[in-house]
């Protein structure tokens, strides 16, 4: 007979509950592990272990617990028993008294273990029916009970679903990785057991909290998905899922179009790409420079697994959890440096995937060592993807393999695989992590089928000086390894197996470019003065101590933008003024005492700080971010201003406030800065400025003049706010050379009455240098390696000629016309 | 190099446990007071009961290896503390025991590994994340600080000092946090304004290491 174990803080309570159950089912077998002794409240894992051993007769044990440490102690006890007994025990989240009565009756009538547990959970049904639905709790309900085995899948028992609904998939490519990840994230956030199935294909129910399981639904556009949820908040959960589905799982329409474009009905085959027949093709420029070399693809070889026996299920399972934790930390680290690296969401979800971990656990329990168990489990999940019809979804199997390999390397202590190869890397897309580890000596260039020039991968490629072309189309993925590839990251041109004359043309460009780079490098440490004698400060944007060192090496005149976020992200508590002060001082020292422009913390709801919890925002980019965030967290802000005021007493410092849109904000911020200065004493060299990123501030630049010593135009955000085009989205043009953006910049320069800097990506665009300087910009702040070439671009500029050029640019139709004008005029 | 290769033996680790017990006893009232502000007012008494039992058990029969020392500490805590800190500290010490393995003595790197295992045990057991206002918020920065100090070759004493300081900062940071785990989470916003008792006691564990092992 299935036995029941009662775990409670109170021995008296446990005895009374058992007496109650015994009235209904006198023959039920019930063991007690409750209290530390007759009087002392508490739970004891060793006592639970003994109770489990006493209860077990081979037919199964259901454990019912009261609360808090009862659950933790029961889980610990389960770790302490042998594998065989553990496999027969189920920790059941049913309420103690009702659950015990129902379980005892079911067990005494000969029900199996799982049925006993289901009956226990259903024990509340009578009371609920009598009293009606419970009011929603004011506080978030306690987390769902953990599965009996770590990571094991936990399908909700049937018959307990309080709410159901059906939604239709509207996304053109179905529930592919990103919308599926959105669904899973939402399901996990909700405190209810949510399950989904594909009604159209007649699939089985799968937990909506498992990315791999959701993806196996093969949900294509137009398919109907059934949603059901259990638990007290089931209705709310289903409503939320329906709302997310109605928003097409928050997939932005342009992204949909982009996928449609590349996955369209007219596939290009590699033959058509051959330079001999079609010559040079064009993608989008992403990182300047010429790349020439044999094509290579990311190695798909997984690490070799050692042939070693299992050292016991517990030890092997721990290897898995340790390795998963290590990979999570690696990914967190990348997040730290790249607040927009949401590409890793799917990877993080896979690390959590109950299906993947549960399968690995099953294999380990069956005697496998951790590495083969994990690889086998990953293979199984990937095979589910591979079997799907949709080619995009099929490709997600690669994600599983990539994550699995990362975990295996962590498990085996093999160093992180750098995408290694000589020549031109051809790939679908490039993660920031990969971009950050490419060896610029061996990797001559990167050619991406998809991707965006404004992505973090692209920014990293520019920072590292690796030429890159993006958006080249999926046909490049069939370029055979070893084929000769030539690409120009400044124009977006590329050719596969180019004929001799084409190759020569690329080579000539490469030679002239490196000659220019050499000349630029030799003059990098001299000031940048236009041909007609106007000094332009060329500054560096830095986000780490290493950047500061690189900025000094490349001849930056100052740090025009210090992204202080690097001090604040991915930690449990804010850095204190002491720590910030020390870091700011190090940055200034690395720059040889040149001026540092410290931008105060620029975060928002898209990347909330753990210690400054933010409410959910529908659109974080239009929400509480930048200075709004700082003013909403005055203690955090005051601490940073104190550190800035202190360091400004020692070294030349400018402070600037991000995303200012109203005068009231700068007034409030200055008041707080004055408070900080009142504590530290005056700082003679301190200059105060704002970042102009919001059109409202750009249009009324003069209103800010009384409060600032300078303004710095953040062209990345100004462009995206002006053009309503998100910069990471390749499908919507967000070129800072758009005449609308240039007009705003020109207006700022005319009206601000203080020096104007530009610290967005546009400042490092050589084509933009004459236009920006002609409009009146006197400081350009760029990625450290770009400093020498931007200085050269300044030296090549004549403001008397560039002025009329800029006038004409303001009248043009779009950014593409501006770029053409810029090329024609000899740049 | 001499300092770097400094090893800690079972006796020294035993002294660490005793020092932790002493700190818990000394601050028993504070722990209870903190817990009465946001929990069920038993953390000080529970942990004191557990650590007193540990000291007795270790006195009765001196363990011969670090693994044995940690294992007995963990098992004793599991059956004598009663509250959630029983399985949490218990799991932490049992993981430390498993990680210590056969070693007779431990160096700074081993200590870092052992405390990392303890932290991961706490995470496995309690499902706590950063910012939940739990012992994790003090132990995690301590482990990170220790790993960094060891990674940069600092001597044991300084590495443990850094860990203790990091734990203390982490503990202080829990004051502003809103509890999301355990009984304190029922208080919601009202749980802010007091440091977390679990973060406080685990800070003593790290401080005790800095005192006893340096």
TrEMBL record, chain A:
It comes from the Bacteria. It catalyses: dihydroxyacetone + phosphoenolpyruvate = dihydroxyacetone phosphate + pyruvate; L-histidyl-[protein] + phosphoenolpyruvate = N(pros)-phospho-L-histidyl-[protein] + pyruvate. Residues 162-252 form the HPr domain. InterPro entries: DhaM_N, HPr-like, HPr-like_sf, PEP-util_enz_mobile_dom, PEP-utilizing_PTS_enzyme, PEP_util_C, PEP_util_CS, Phosphohistidine_dom_sf. Residues 137-148 have a biased composition (Pro residues). Belongs to the PEP-utilizing enzyme family. Homodimer. The dihydroxyacetone kinase complex is composed of a homodimer of DhaM, a homodimer of DhaK and the subunit DhaL. This is Phosphocarrier protein HPr. The lineage of its organism: Bacteria, Bacillati, Actinomycetota, Actinomycetes, Micromonosporales.
